[in-house]
Amino acid sequence: MTDEKWVHAPTFRFLEMYMIQEDIKALLPQGVFLLDVKEDFHQGVVKCIIDAEKPVDLDLTTTISRTINDSGILDELYPDGMALHVSSAGVDRPLKYDYQYRKNIGRIISITVDRDGKPYSLEAQILEVTDDSVLIQRSSAADEWIPIADIIHSKVLIKF
């Protein structure tokens, strides 16, 4: 016989984290997006990764951290306390949203696209972005609009 508490614990924890994410999203200023919330019980830390259409600086992460702490939304889930770390998405984080492509116009990306059910990878420069497509330029091909929904994975390439 299975212990009901054991069976429902992961689902309950998932729902708690979902609710915390939604509460944190509601606290964010206009144009700032929550990409991820992770718990690290070994270090006693809740990590929030944010991004924005404009560059994310230390003042913004500090303000958001204070807002989340002052709201008390973490107190119920972590009655013994957890440190809160709010940071920006690093350059190594994959691009997923139109605003992320928009703020990287002019940069070279590595992109994997779904072409007829098969992944196709290439390097290209972002030229233009709409709400649902990215215009890219490759060195050996014509400019091409790629629907964001067809992008499997993409990252900004850092070249020195």
Structural features, described:
The protein contains 3 helices and 8 strands, in the order αββαβαβββββ. The chain is an alpha+beta fold and 160 residues long. It has 2 domains: 4-88, GMP Synthetase, Chain A, domain 3, CATH 3.30.300; 98-156, SH3 type barrels, CATH 2.30.30.100. The chain has a 5-stranded antiparallel beta sheet with strand order 7-6-5-4-8. It has a 3-stranded mixed beta sheet with strand order 1-2-3, covered by helices on one side. A hairpin with a 2-residue loop joins strand 4 (108-115) and strand 5 (118-129). The longest helix has 24 residues, at 4-27.
- Any low-confidence stretches, pLDDT <50, length ≥5? 1-7
Named CATH topology of the largest domain: GMP Synthetase, Chain A, domain 3
* Tally of helical runs: 3
Determine the mean pLDDT. 88
Biggest sheet record: 5 strands, antiparallel
* Element-level helix/strand string: HEEHEHEEEEE
- Please tell me what the overall shape is: elongated
User: What structural category arises from helix and sheet content?
Assistant: alpha+beta
Tell me what portion of residues adopts beta-strand conformation. 35-45%
CATH architecture of the largest domain: 2-Layer Sandwich
From the alpha carbons, calculate the radius of gyration and give it in angstroms. Answer: 19 Å
What is the CA-CA span between the terminal residues? 60 Å
Measured as a percent range, the helix fraction is: 25-40%
Q: How many beta-strand segments? A: 8
- Which class of the largest domain in CATH terms? Alpha Beta
Total tally of structural domains: 2
Strand order of the largest sheet: 7-6-5-4-8
